[in-house]
Amino acid sequence: MIRFTRVNEAISGTLARLxxxxxxxxxxxxxxxxxxxxxxxxxxxxxxxxxxxADTGIEGETIILGxxxxxxxxxxxxxxxxxxxxxxxxSFRIKLLTxxxxxxxxxxxxxxxxxxxxxxFDQLKSDHDNFASAFNNHIHPTPSGxxxxxxxxxSVIPVQPSxxxxxxxxxxxxxxx
Length: 177
Description:
By secondary structure, this protein is of the alpha+beta class.
């Protein structure tokens, strides 16, 4: 038999399994059931979620098959992974959208392709360093006598090669297209 129950508490059970306490047929009918989830999904429900509670065919052993979310945000064809605070308010969400894009934590900014960014950055750094070298080594023709390097002016500091490095910005653990 399958019943709709309300989560009272989620607790770690034996063998590191999640056991959920549910209120079944009233406030005094507290039952425990093993939480069943898809492979690779590790989550724990918050108090008050409506659980789908089912018998297993073994006397006294029941399982939670899933939960009914009261507010669906995902549009048809989308998948959202999310976490909430204890009150059920979203704290973080990853959206896989029907247009082939993904939003990780929101849509206010863009992720970058690091390899392409590094190529452009390294070219800009090389151009800067070449300019700095040319600027620091250029000479001025003089009206009389041989050409000479520019006379140092206290307010003009020689241009230094760039020491900028974007390598620490690379996140090795997250890959993209």
